Amino acid sequence: MKKVKIMLKIFISHSTKDHQLVVALEKYLKSKGILAYIAERDYQIGKPLSNKIIENIETSDYLLVLYTSRGKESGFVNQEIGYWIKARGFTNFIPLVEKGIKTEGFISGLEYIEFDPENQNVSLSNTIHYIEQSRKGKEIELFGYNMLLSLGLIGLTALILYGIYKLMKE
Hints:
Elements: E1 8-13, H1 19-31, E2 34-37, H2 49-58, E3 62-67, H3 69-73, H4 75-88, E4 93-98, E5 113-115, H5 120-169
Parallel strand pairs: 1-2, 1-3, 3-4, 4-5
Helix pairs in contact: 2-4
């Protein structure tokens, strides 16, 4: 059976003031074959910003929250977190929290990946490792589903052939 490669889409929730960090994160994710959605790069003139955000949160596999001092203060970041949690709970929710920041609201009390501005590569590497581990689990689930589907089709084919055999014999 053919192994299916799953292209992941990650919505990066962040403050636009963290633009340089988001660019580095996007570049790193892209090098690992992961699509990063960054709202301010997705121009949809005339479309309400909230609709664009909601649509892309709903079509993303993960929400990666860049919880820096700027992100913590962003109303958009907090709304995106709330929308994701309402829609999916904490499934595929990845808080990347800046070292020294006190977590509040929905992020309070959660395990997270620490982001150290002095050592960004370690934080990005830890984030990718977490996503890759999660992706392996999804590939295994998909393989199991495909195997079950194949067995079901074989069984159904066998029943149809048996029925045809019985009809022909009579």
